[in-house]
Specification:
354 residues, Farnesyl Diphosphate Synthase, 18 helices
Length: 354
């Protein structure tokens, strides 16, 4: 299977090859979630699948990079993203505010990237513990697929680094409300010397994406030499592409997060003009980093697709100030961004539920 280079070819492969497999695997995990004995864990597992299907659909696009091993890549991506979304729900709607609890839960994400690592009692700091083996099976599914990669040991340090950023973020952002920003600022200071110029909240956004992991794993499953490529891919996706991905996610959730009192990194820009200027900067820097990658047309389409699909979300239309700002952002996406905007608008309104 060839990696698509044009928007129409990409969309054809997504609808024909990617989405059916993503939905098939999500339906399996939904059935497993329905069998979770603890009601709270069951509710959060089902809610994460029902409310965040789009994350698996979007991540699943990277499976095209695995070529003939697309099914293995989809299996990994859906399982890993399901862990991410499930744990996010457990932390966001948590019955505790204990950083030890959040750290223990996110051990599963490191173990998922480490074939042979034994599963732990990830729920050891919380009262809800009986999940019927749900989280352990997700971890083992990821391990099984990674075990097929010939250059696994070559790519693991990059995977662990990206997972480390992600898990640290999830711990710091879910503690007591008055502790969140100080913890995130201290964490940023620890990494600041190794980063391009950005703010603590932009670094937090860059850390909150799984796209770099999906990209590296999919290339690895294509069984190509990864010695040089893994560094190109990690640097190509972190920080700029991942940051743009998560900032867009927060951008469309602004009203929802204000009402829920949730942390939203877009709230920390001094004004809307600065936010739009920084969005444009992230788009430009993403283009520069992507231009250094193999299959750069594919990666650029994904980046433009993120703009189009996120800004096609119905939540944008419902927020007047966000809607006007979205027009300014999409104007920088060009023809391919508009193509994905239209496709995203249609898909989000016509797709069947999981």
């Amino acid at each position: 299977m060839k990696i698509p280079k044009r928007p129409l070819g990409l969309m054809t492969k997504i609808y024909r090859h990617v989405l059916p497999k993503v939905h098939q695997k999500l339906n399996y995990w939904k059935e497993r979630a329905l069998a979770i004995p603890d009601q709270e864990l069951r509710n959060q597992a089902l809610s994460s699948i029902r409310g965040k299907t789009f994350h698996c659909e979007g991540g699943g696009i990277y499976s095209l990079l695995a070529k003939e091993n697309l099914d293995d890549a989809v299996s990994f991506i859906v399982a890993y993203q399901t862990i991410s979304d499930y744990l996010d729900n457990l932390c966001d709607r948590s019955t505790s505010l204990d950083p030890n609890d959040f750290r223990a839960l996110h051990e599963s994400m490191h173990h998922a990237l480490t074939p042979g690592a034994p599963v732990s009692d990830y729920y050891r700091f919380r009262k809800e513990r009986e999940d019927g083996g749900y989280l352990a099976e997700l971890v083992k599914t990821c391990q099984h697929q990674l075990g097929k990669i010939q250059d696994l040991k070559v790519i693991q340090p990059a995977l662990w680094e990206l997972e480390g950023y992600y898990s640290d973020l999830q711990v710091h952002k879910h503690v007591k409300q008055d502790e969140r920003v100080p913890r995130l600022q201290e964490w940023f200071k620890y990494h600041q010397s190794r980063l391009p110029e950005m703010t603590w909240y932009e670094f937090s956004a860059c850390s909150g994406s799984t796209l770099g992991i999906f990209c590296i794993v999919s290339y690895g499953l294509a069984q190509i030499k990864m010695d040089e490529l893994v560094h190109q891919l990690k640097d190509g996706y972190f920080p700029w592409v991942q940051g743009l991905h998560i900032l867009l996610d927060y951008f469309v959730d602004q009203d929802e997060d204000k009402q829920g009192g949730d942390l939203n990194f877009c709230f920390y820009y001094e004004d809307e003009a600065t936010m739009i200027e920084r969005f444009h900067h992230f788009i430009e820097q993403s283009d520069i980093s992507i231009a250094k990658l193999p299959d750069k047309n594919f990666h650029r389409m994904i980046n433009r697709g993120l703009l189009g699909i996120y800004l096609a979300d119905q939540k944008v239309k419902a927020q007047k100030n966000v809607r006007s700002l979205a027009r300014k952002i999409i104007s920088q996406a060009g023809g391919s961004g508009l193509f994905f905007f239209v496709n995203g608008w249609l898909y989000r309104r016509l797709k069947p539920g999981i």
